[in-house]
Amino acid sequence: MTARAADRARYDRATAHLDAPLAIVDLDAFDANADDLVRRAGGKPIRVASKSVRCRALLERVLAKDGFAGIMSFTLAESLWLARSGFDDILLAYPSADRSGYAELAADPKLTAAVTVMVDDPAQLAFIDEARAGGTEVIRVCLELDTSLKLLGGKVRVGARRSPLHSPAQVADMARLVARRPGFKVVGIMAYEGHIAGVGDAVAGRPLRSRAVRLMQATARKELAERRAAVVRAVRAVVPDLEFVNGGGTGSVQHTAAEGAVTEIGAGSGLYVPRLFDNYTSFSGRPAALFAQPVVRRPGVGVVTVLGGGYPASGAAGPDRLPVPYLPEGLKYDPQEGPGEVQTPLLGSPADDLLIGDKVWFRHAKAGELCERFEVLRLIEGDAVTATVPTYRGEGHTFL
User: Where on the phi/psi map is residue 160: left (φ > 0), alpha (ψ -120 to 50), or beta?
Assistant: First the structure.
């Protein structure tokens, strides 16, 4: 029996009393992935990206482990909810236009002590001030550095379009502007190198593309390490008591941790290890989060149909954004239909061994987005479900 077949047997035994659709997290794999992130971080703390987890119970579990400290959130409303739930170190990783959220934040000293907001434009400071509604608490601010690699005098750009602050001088000028403005305090710098951390460099069947990605990433790592160090020096000249410099992501943990200027690493997807993380040479993890759909039809030889399953991930549309049938091994989509909103035909010889009601296990493409489809996660240890915990959606929250 292969390791994957053994996992399928475990998952089927553990959930035999449960009807699909359902989602699971294999805690043995989850914990092993957490340990691997800590090992790769080389002693620097990991701030957990909540958008990649979207389950309070699992955020609590990983933050209880040595090597993890703090949360990187994705909306202001989520940040405030987490702070009120007892989490005390929350970095909002994206700028917000939530007026009521800023009013709540500026009026509550406990919230302002726990939450740091992201800023990269003076207009964002003006927006926050207009939204304060009389609140006078000092708001903690993190400045985001654009990490994109610019070549040929800026004519070629590699990386996500995020912050407008690219040079050390630009970030330092923004730090001075914040420092002069009452009601704000710069406490950190964040620089997420998505073109390094979030792009696989070993794509199956595409050796030339993989080699080009590795070359790009090596060039980008060198350029960013030098620029990030210069940015930190420039900002510390303005803000000597800077508390943290956050960088990295699941795919670049060990490289970013090696930079002296970085004090903490941001990561989260590496806990669940969705399918987008199969194409990396820098690490390998264990798939920890999966979902099961039930067989509801047997249209013919070598074909079964499962209920639903069309859960595409965000990003540029393409096959890599789709979930993949994982267990039993050997199933594939009908190219004329793909994964559907209500039904999904699956082709392959394993289909002939599946009965009505049997489960087919899938891996999704991006980590936390699976939790937007399910209200609970079944936590599996060995071959038993040991807990059922709510996702954000199960607690009544869809933040974005």
Answer: beta
Spatial distance between the Cα atoms of 205 and 8, rounded to a whole number of angstroms: 27
Cα–Cα distance list, 134 to 129, 141, 186 (Å):
9, 19, 21
pTM, rounded to two decimals: 0.93
E-state strands within 183-330: 184-191, 244-247, 264-267, 289-300, 303-307, 324-327
pLDDT tens digit sequence for 163-194: 899 899 999 999 999 999 999 999 999 998 87
What is the overall mean pLDDT for the chain?
93
Closest by Cα among 74, 189, 167, 177 to 121: 177
- Tokens 């069947």 identify what position? 205
What's 309's DSSP letter? Answer: -
At 348-360, the pLDDT tens digits run 999 999 999 999 9
- Determine which helix (DSSP H) or strand (DSSP E) holds 370, and give its type and residue range: none
Secondary structure of 131-175 in the HEC alphabet? HCCCCCCCEEEEEECCCCEEEHHHCEEECCCCCCCCCHHHHHHHH
Residue among 249, 256, 293, 244 at smallest CA distance from 271: 249
Residue 200: predicted pLDDT? 64
pLDDT surpasses 70 at 84? yes
The DSSP line for 87-103 is: ---EEE-S----HHHHH
* 3-state class (DSSP) for residue 380: strand
Band of residue 202 on the pLDDT scale cut at 50, 70, 90: low
Phi/psi for 201 (5° steps) reads: -115, 15
CB 125 within 8 A of CB 181: yes
Residue with more model confidence, 133 or 212: 133
CA distance 189 to 191: 7
**How many DSSP H helices and E strands does the chain contain?**
12, 19
Residue 198 has pLDDT above 70, yes or no: no
Span 300-336, pLDDT tens digits:
999 999 999 999 999 888 898 999 999 999 999 999 9
Helix, strand, coil percentages, rounded to 5, for the chain: 40, 25, 35
The reported pLDDT for the residue numbered 279 is 78
| 214 vs 218: CA distance, rounded Å | 6
Question: Which residues pair with residue 244 across a beta bridge?
Answer: 188
- Cβ-count burial of 396 within 10 angstroms (0-12 exposed, 13-18 middle, 19+ buried)? exposed
